[in-house]
Amino acid sequence: MRPPLSLQRLTSSFSNIQSASSWFEVYAAFSTSMILVRTAVNDFLPPAIRSFIISNLKSLFSRPRSRVSKIVTLQISDYWEVGQKNELYDAVKEYAPAKIRHEYNTLKIGKLQGKESIIFAVTSGQKFEDVFQEMKITWTFNHVKSQSSDNSSGNNHEKNMFVLSFDEKHREKVLENYIPYVLNKYKTMKEGEKVLKIHTRSGGWRATELKHPATFETLAMDPELKQAIIDDLDRFLRRKEFYKRVGKAWKRGYLFYGPPGTGKSSLVAAMANYLKFDVYDLQLSRVHSDSELETAVRTTANRSILVIEDIDCNEETHDRSRVQTVVLHSSQPYKRNAFSLSGLLNYIDGLWSSCGEERIIIFTTNYIEKLDPALLRPGRMDMHINLSYCKPHGFRTLALNYLGIHGGHHPELMEEIEGLLEKTEVTPAAVAEELMKNEDASIVLQGLVSFLKRKKMEDDEQEGVDDMQSVGDNVNLQKSKRAKVE
């Protein structure tokens, strides 16, 4: 059977295409052939077969070319340079076990001294996958021992490294979204298990673990004042953008004042435990110049509490309006250089105060009247907290802490004690000492009643002596005035 004439022309045209004077004949022959093929398919093939052929032809010609994926790898070493720790490595080291501890069978497990919980870690060569915003990310942990460049020494250097692999098309999302996400997760986990430190200055800051157990629940102070402090701290923590918007350094100043033994140091510890902030204890008597003071303040960390206790003990902080005449003798020793009040003001509220953020500054004093007013104004000491003598609300907290009792226990003794506290000036520290003298609550409370009665009697006697002294002073003053008139 001979092929149709149009097909013969098409074949002839393709065979002689190089000698054809025009492509038009090829196009005309091809078009005619396609019309004949379509007519034959529609007339002679069943609909099901026809649909199958057309569907496969469409799939064949419309199938996109497969893209060859390009894998990007990021290496995160434990040290960026010699002696310079890589914080991102630490973040991944904490983040990885939390992701895989329920999915993988091979994990390192242990318990470190000072840690209450079991810790997990990945092993060398282990891979695990993470999914973030529909991206698949592969992590590999490698522990490498490399020989020193000086082969004769035979020393080996250990290097730990996480390798992050992902599709190149996700590069921007990984760098701008995923890496910050891992860092934020690390920050959240570390805050939950952070071991607080107290730093003291001796040449430089030296850290010791802060184990003070004080919390807001254990403080013997007015419940309303306690809640006001907590609310103020919470408000401070969430107002980073507010401080930035109004142009203020992100810091907060507190002044604790009151008699000795009223719980100023315990309140500092309770704030540190509540905020999970390290404490920097700065003793101004050890600061010999403004530059040394600047170094001390500048090198405190963010999210920390800078405490200057008994600030009234430093002459530089006394009220400058109280002019004092000082007579210098050649036999007097030379006074060492010290910081200045203006330097202290600058470092807590001036330009240097903006060299950190999320910081708490606390002054404590037993004698607020001694301090220069410039130290106390808002912006330096924003909240003044008077920690005074023990009152009934404070005693109830102490009784619960030390004896495990509340108002329903020993009601008569409790009522008598609370009545005496309203009339007697006694510090929470003194009451706490009485509560520790016996394990029997009844004996302790009776002893506290006796103690408070003695204290009230002593106070009354002292008050009588003071009144007599005052009368005597007035008599002497009147005599002096009469003598001057005469």
Automatic annotation (TrEMBL):
InterPro entries: AAA+_ATPase, AAA_N_dom, At3g28540-like_C, ATPase_AAA_core, ATPase_AAA_CS, Mitochondrial_chaperone_BCS1, P-loop_NTPase. The lineage of its organism: Eukaryota, Viridiplantae, Streptophyta, Embryophyta, Tracheophyta. This is AAA-ATPase. It catalyses: ATP + H2O = ADP + phosphate + H(+). Belongs to the AAA ATPase family. BCS1 subfamily. GO terms for molecular function: ATP binding; ATP hydrolysis activity. GO terms for biological process: response to stress. SMART domains: AAA (SM00382). SUPFAM superfamilies: P-loop containing nucleoside triphosphate hydrolases. It comes from Quillaja saponaria (Soap bark tree).
